[in-house]
Specification:
The protein is built from six helices and no strands. By secondary structure, the protein is mainly alpha-helical. It is elongated. The model has no long low-confidence stretch (mean pLDDT 82).
């Protein structure tokens, strides 16, 4: 089942690229690539939203996976907005720079969200309170054996 879904997603990705390239075939190569990238970023936003909704529906929530997916959603949305601003810029250098900054800023925002998702929480001490070297001392070992035999 997973193999079929994977194959379907890969085929859908290539089909989306092909259709987008055919739709935006007129114009310069730079504009064609910008428009295609914008379309793919927008499609990625939709797929990420679908994944996020599926993860929310599960009873057992994996907060780390939700944060990773949310970070990707922010990045893809920012990329689509940035690409659209680049396309609209035409002769306006300021709009072009803003589009580039939005795209780059959302990449940094994704990294921040991923950093928060993968940051290790402080470990709770659930084990014995003895020092590591004391655990291996002969008297500690003898005490553990005596307790287990009782």
């Amino acid at each position: 089942m997973r193999g079929r879904v994977r194959l379907l997603l890969i085929a859908g990705g290539f089909a989306a690229i092909f259709v987008s390239l055919q739709i935006h075939s007129s114009g310069s190569l730079g504009l064609q690539i910008t428009e295609t990238t914008r379309d793919l970023s927008f499609a990625s936003v939709g797929l990420t939203l679908l994944l996020w909704l599926l993860l929310i529906a599960f009873r057992k929530k994996d907060h780390q996976l939700l944060m990773v997916t949310g970070g990707l959603g922010l990045q893809f949305t920012g990329e689509a907005i940035g690409q659209s601003l680049r396309q609209l810029s035409k002769d306006h250098l300021t709009i072009l720079i803003v589009g580039n900054l939005v795209a780059a800023g959302t990449h940094l925002l994704r990294l921040y969200v991923w950093n928060a998702a993968f940051r290790k929480a402080p470990l709770k001490d659930k084990g014995p309170t003895e020092k590591p070297l004391e655990a291996f001392s002969p008297s500690a070992q003898a005490q553990k054996i005596a307790e287990s035999n009782s």
